[in-house]
Amino acid sequence: MTNEPRCFGAPLRLQSTLGRMLALPLLALLFAGCAATVDDGERELGSSVAALDDGEGEALPELVDDLVQDPSRTAARFTVASFTVGASGRDWMATVENDRLLSNLSIPGSHDSAAFVEPVSGTAKCQNLSLTDQLNVGVRFLDIRCRHINDGFAIHHGSIYQNQNFDDVLNAVIGFLNAHPTEAVIMSVKEEHTASNNTRSFADTFDSYVQKNPGKWNFNGNISTLGEARGKITLFRRFGGADRGISASYWPDKTTFSSGNLRVQDNYAVTNTSTKWNQIKGLMTRPTRAAPERCT
User: Fold this and answer.
1) Where are the beta strands (DSSP E) in 197-254?
2) Given this model, what pLDDT does residue 26 score?
3) What's this model's pTM, rounded to 2 decimal places?
4) Using CA atoms, how far apart are residues 220 and 74, in angstroms rounded to an integer?
5) 26-73 confidence digits (pLDDT tens)
């Protein structure tokens, strides 16, 4: 797998956005291979991308330009789109060819996907929709943060327990995949907060969860095709001590970087919205500049 920024066989591109500006806080338009156009939200999503609609049929780079010029207008249009896509969102991957690489899709994802609880407003909650509801409206990248405690995984955002455990997450995701076998879910698993009272490593505890449903996981360390990933959870591994899945254990803080098959924009400390959206646009349009003749 080349690390050159090409449309076909391109590295995975991971974007962090201004999450709380959108009704469904998005971690990304993820794995952006080619210049993405948006769907109208009223038909099954086509084979080239799955992206949120602006209601006016504009290409995604133009939407970013709009948001820089007028954030309130574009954010409002995205708010509508995040729910209108739900009609076809449950099965949007069904129309995509099996041989298309995940890195050739733009995949909606959520930041701190299971962070629903906060003791004080503004401290920990990132999502209003349950995991099942997120999947039903088209999200296919989940960001799961696990505290390793008592040889199990409790879901946390920082120090705050989210009143659920990793089994709850897996039951929701596997239940969705069983009901919608054409779909594929990419799951980032990251260790969160302070480990406590364990007799084994984080990786060993992760393996204990895998053994409950081993056939539902895709541990390909290269970029899978959609056909290989359908009906399974593709591991996006943000922890060490294991050699499986897409390796993302190297993750510098608050920056844009490349590592292996990944190209990441994660400048999450936003002090200026124009700067942030220019960072998003820069990563999103890079493959188009590199090889426009190979985009579809």
Assistant:
1) 217-218, 233-238, 246-247
2) 37
3) 0.74
4) 37
5) 333 343 332 222 222 222 222 222 333 333 333 444 544 554 455 444
User: What sign does the dihedral 242-247-253-258 (CA atoms) show?
Assistant: positive
Paired tokens of 27: 């971690």
What is the biggest distance separating any 2 CA atoms in the chain, rounded to whole angstroms?
55
CATH placement of domain 12-294: 3.20.20.190
Is the pLDDT at 245 greater than 70? The verdict is yes
Taking the C-alpha atoms of residue 202 and residue 248, their distance in angstroms, rounded to an integer, is: 15
Query: What's the Cα-to-Cα distance from 158 to each of 66, 150, 281, rounded to whole Å?
Result: 34, 17, 29
CB environment 124-141: b (16+ within 10 A), e (fewer):
bbbbebebeebbbbbbbb
List of long-range contacts for 246-254, beta carbons under 8 Å, 24+ apart:
246/12, 246/186, 246/220, 246/221, 247/221, 248/188
* Domain limits, the chain: 12-294
